Amino acid sequence: MAGEGFNEDYPVEIHEYLSTFENSIGAVDEMLKTMMSAKVDLVFAYTFNSMFWVYLATQGVNPKEHSVKQELERIRVYMNRVKEITDKKKAGKLDRGAASRFVKNALWEPKPKNASKVANKGKSEN
C-alpha cells in the first residue's frame, strides 16, 4: 500500500479493496484540508476586519459608515454558508421506505363487520 511492493500481512484477495480504500482515504483527506483551509481563511479575514473596525473606532471614525461594515457582513455570509454545508453533511437522512411502513402500520384500520361473524361460524362448526 505505502510502497509498490507486496505485503504478506494480509490475503492477496483483498489487495485491490485495500488499494481502493487507501485512495478513498486520500480523497477525503484532501477534501478536509481544503475545507479546513477555507475555514481558517474566513476566520482570519473576519478577525483582521474586526481588528480594523476597532482601530477605526479608536481613531474617532464611525465604523458603521465605513466599507469595513460591508466586508464583515460579506465574510459572515460566507461563514454561514460553510456552516450550512457542514451541517447538511452531519444531518441524518430520511429512509422514506421505513417511514412509509411506519406510518402505514401505525394507522388504524377498522375490521369488516362480517369478518368476526365468519370467524365465529368457523369455530362453532368444528
Automatic annotation (TrEMBL):
The keyword Cell membrane does not apply. It is found in: Cytoplasm; Nucleus, Nucleolus. One of its GO terms (biological process) is maturation of 5.8S rRNA. InterPro entries: Exosome-assoc_fac/DNA_repair (IPR011082), Sas10/Utp3/C1D (IPR007146). Keywords: Cytoplasm, DNA-binding, Nucleus, RNA-binding, rRNA processing. Plays a role in the recruitment of the exosome to pre-rRNA to mediate the 3'-5' end processing of the 5.8S rRNA. Belongs to the C1D family. This is Nuclear nucleic acid-binding protein C1D. It comes from Muntiacus reevesi.
